[in-house]
Amino acid sequence: MILTKALTDPALIKDPSKHPIYEALAAIGVPELREKIERLEQYVALLMHWNRRINLTAIRDEAGVWTHHVLDCLAVVPLLRDRSAAQGTHTDAPFLLDAGTGAGLPALLLALAEPSWRVVAVDAVEKKIRFLRHVAAMMALAELKPVHARLEQLGRGEASHSVCPAPGFDMIVSRAFASLIDFVESTQHLLHTGGFYCAMKGQVPHLEIEAFQRVHPNWQLETIVLQVPGLDAQRCAVIMRPPGMTHLASRPMHASN
Fold first, then answer.
1. Around Cβ 214, how many Cβ atoms within 10 Å?
2. I need a surface site. Which of 63, 125, 226, 248 has the fewest CB within 10 A?
3. What's residue 18's pLDDT?
4. Which CA distances in Å does 82 have to 29, 87, 93, 123, 168?
5. How far is CA 104 from the centre of its chain?
6. H/E element holding 171?
């Protein structure tokens, strides 16, 4: 892909406006992040550096990190903004939980895109949380809280009170984390009564959706196809809402049935 090749050409990235990611950010609906390209580069550099010592991601080339991680994660930002605004939140600043964050994907990028969101990034692997704490400090992301814990235990112990909002999270997000059923069952105790789930997937997981609807027939499900520049693969997001919630009007975003 042209974007992937350009990302490896130092001559093209001296001027932020000529950075290959510049146009891609606009294409996925986050043009304001053009002002934060240097911070995105900082994250990519830290991820590449730490990945040589500990296994954070199987993607080891810089161009791949930009397309398969940075753009892939940022592509969901407009959707989360839209659905959060349509649904409403119980506070002025939404609480978001990233379940199984790994190297901060998507938690760190969501915190960078929306500094007002209070983002809690949870993973059971301590070394990944150690990396994420370091990056959050280096990048001064005050509203990003990395937590080393199992999701089933989060919110149930005294230590969780400082990071888990009492009413629950407005949004719970995961990326290639687990089946839809397992994702919800491991985190349902953490969801606010007016909140929703967003599962980031590759191809539309038709079998997972069918299985989920058999177990939870009254839930509202919405599947949105995501377009990621430079990524020659399918991406989608599955929005899930518990019964009794009203889905307010929102902009169409390439929904797929």
1. 9
2. 248
3. 80
4. 11, 9, 14, 26, 20
5. 8
6. strand 169-175
pLDDT digits (tens, 9 = 90+) for 190-209: 999 999 999 999 999 999 99
In this structure, is residue 28 part of a structural domain? yes
| pLDDT tens-digit map of 8-18 | 555 555 677 88
Assess whether 192 and 79 both reside in one domain: yes
Tokens 């949105």 locate to: 224
Are 94 and 173 in a shared domain?
A: yes
Q: How many domains are contained in the chain?
A: 2
Neighbours of 103 (CB within 10 A): 24
Which residues of the chain register pLDDT less than 50? Answer: 1-2, 5, 247-252, 254-257
For 61, the enclosing helix (H) or strand (E) is: none
Q: Which SS3 state, helix, strand or coil, does residue 240 take? A: strand
Cα gap 145→97, rounded to integer Å: 10
| pTM beyond 0.85, yes or no | yes
Q: Which parts of 90-132 are beta strand (E)?
A: 95-99, 118-123
Residue linked to tokens 């950075």: 19
- Is residue 58 helix, strand or coil? coil
Based on the domain organization, do 177 and 221 belong to the same domain? yes
